[in-house]
Here is the input.
Amino acid sequence: MAEEFTNPLRQPLPDGIIPEDVVARTENRWLMIMAAMLLFMMAIIVVTGIMGAMQPSSNVELIDPTTLHLQGEFVESNLGTTAEPDGSVTVRLIATQYEFVPQCVDVPVGRAVKFRITSADVVHGFLLPGTNVNTMVVPGFVAEVRTRFTKEAEYAMPCHEFCGLGHHAMWAHVRVVPQERFGKPALLERRTCATQ
Ligand code: CUA
Here is the structure.
């Protein structure tokens, strides 16, 4: 002990002052922990990328964007709101630069509603303020969001992913209407309010 005090750098410091080498050691430890976490997260990104497993977390349903409007589920005549046999409602939309197709849809209050949306070109975003509906719309994937509206409302839905020069003008509307007004559309009928 006595020998240590002969070295001026090793002399005890006044209370409350932490020796420089202790500070340096602690900082180095934290630096190594941070570096290890970073490497771990980067490794996850690289591995999932190489394995082809990097996908939007909410949905892994693939679709060929060249078929939109023309054939398959997102054929032109299948867009809009439709009633399912179990009483729920499905809304199919295509997001494209710079509009949602159809631009306006009606959905009934108090019934299960399922939005199925896909993109024809770049990444768009679909958001109904104040509800759980908030998703990215990625080309090549079908984004599906389930909800149930508790009150009548008219939502303006802004695209919330920057998608090009017309992004700010990419809006459409979802109208939550009373069940009576929604009526009982035939199972095969597709509804939109875009032309009203
Ligand atoms: Cu579509 Cu921004």
